[in-house]
């Protein structure tokens, strides 16, 4: 996963264990085995 600074174009990679678990749970609850994903966040620095 990564977050893109929309002002500078800088890309910040991140890992969040709870987010990983949530993606797996969502797929499982919908009857799927998660085999891949893509997540892009866009923001501005505070």
Question: What's the short version?
Answer:
With 46 residues, the protein is of the alpha+beta class. It is built from one helix and three strands.
Task: Give unreliable regions as ranges.
Answer: none
Q: Can you tell me the number of structural domains?
A: 1
| Gross CATH architecture | 2-Layer Sandwich
CATH class: Alpha Beta
Helix content: 25-40%
Sheet with most strands: strand arrangement? 2-1-3
| N-to-C span | 20 Å
Largest sheet: 3 strands, mixed
Q: What is the CATH fold-level name?
A: Dna Ligase, domain 1
Percent strand:
15-25%
Write the H/E string, N to C: EEHE
Number of strands: 3
User: Mind telling me the C-alpha Rg?
Assistant: 13 Å
> How confident overall, as mean pLDDT?
96
Counting DSSP H or I runs of 4 or more residues, the number of helices is 1
Label the structural class: alpha+beta
């Amino acid at each position: 996963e990564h977050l893109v600074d929309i002002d500078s174009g800088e890309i910040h990679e991140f890992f969040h264990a709870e987010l990983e678990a949530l993606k797996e749970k969502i797929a499982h609850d919908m009857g799927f085995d998660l085999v891949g994903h893509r997540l892009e966040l866009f923001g501005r620095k505070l």
